[in-house]
């Protein structure tokens, strides 16, 4: 909390190359802070922090409206086309401790593409990576962000039909994080109304942790 009338939430986006991590970060911020474009190699090579302006009309506590600020840490992909796992992990770990050491991390967003199947190896690698970053309580502080939901919709899948047809690997992952997931329409995410819906869902996930953030100093020194 920056003051009694304002709340700041700290988020980090994690995922593979070309899943739309940076674009998702921009959508959450309502800006274009992070470089995002199609590329045959990993675009993001270092961590960068983006901050939103004050957002009104999203959250109320104790009968009072609070202004919301969103901070998003964009990260290199894992696996990365030019960096080893250890380099990516150490870079992200250091940035998390540097930017969020005072307030902690409210939520890690594992970014997956809704229009591509999730393979067991990919899921295992992602989970292991997040566990190494966040520690044993990672499930409480992780949500899945399914990007390119517009492409799944174009293929005739509603959210309910998509989950009904999803692989056991994806369903198992969603279950492990207590079904904290959000579908992100890449075409609509820049619209304020759509962004507000996503932010309210994220705040609901954070509310499940009683607005507590994950301390980072323990994991930053491992």
Automatic annotation (TrEMBL):
Keyword Nucleotide-binding included in the entry's annotation: yes
Chain ranges of the AIG1-type G domain: 6-222
GO molecular function: GTP binding
Pfam family for this entry, one: AIG1
InterPro entries: G_AIG1 (IPR006703), GIMA/IAN/Toc (IPR045058), P-loop_NTPase (IPR027417)
Keywords for the protein's UniProt record, in alphabetical order: GTP-binding, Nucleotide-binding
Family: Belongs to the TRAFAC class TrmE-Era-EngA-EngB-Septin-like GTPase superfamily. AIG1/Toc34/Toc159-like paraseptin GTPase family. IAN subfamily.
PANTHER family recorded: GTPASE IMAP FAMILY MEMBER GIMD1, GTPASE, IMAP FAMILY MEMBER-RELATED
Protein name per UniProt: GTPase IMAP family member GIMD1
Name of the gene: Gimd1
């Amino acid at each position: 909390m920056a003051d009694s009338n304002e709340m700041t939430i700290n988020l980090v986006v994690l995922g593979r190359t070309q899943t739309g991590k940076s674009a998702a970060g921009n959508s959450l911020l309502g800006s274009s802070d992070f470089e995002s474009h199609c590329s045959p190699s990993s675009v993001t090579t270092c961590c960068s922090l983006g901050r939103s302006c004050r957002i009104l009309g999203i959250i109320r506590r104790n009968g009072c409206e609070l202004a919301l600020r969103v901070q998003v840490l964009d990260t290199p992909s894992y696996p990365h086309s030019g960096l080893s796992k250890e380099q990516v992990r150490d870079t992200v770990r250091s940035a998390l401790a540097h930017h969020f050491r005072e307030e902690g991390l409210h939520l890690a967003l594992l970014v997956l593409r809704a229009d591509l199947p999730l393979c067991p190896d990919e899921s295992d690698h992602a989970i292991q990576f997040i566990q190494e970053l966040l520690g044993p309580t990672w499930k409480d502080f992780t949500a899945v962000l399914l990007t390119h939901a517009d492409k799944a919709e174009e293929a005739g899948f509603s959210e309910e039909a998509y989950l009904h047809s999803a692989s056991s690997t994806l369903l198992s992952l969603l279950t492990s994080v207590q079904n904290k997931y959000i579908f992100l329409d890449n075409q609509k995410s820049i619209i304020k109304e759509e962004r507000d819906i996503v932010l309210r869902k994220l705040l609901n996930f954070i509310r499940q942790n009683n607005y507590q953030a994950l301390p980072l100093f323990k994991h930053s020194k491992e």
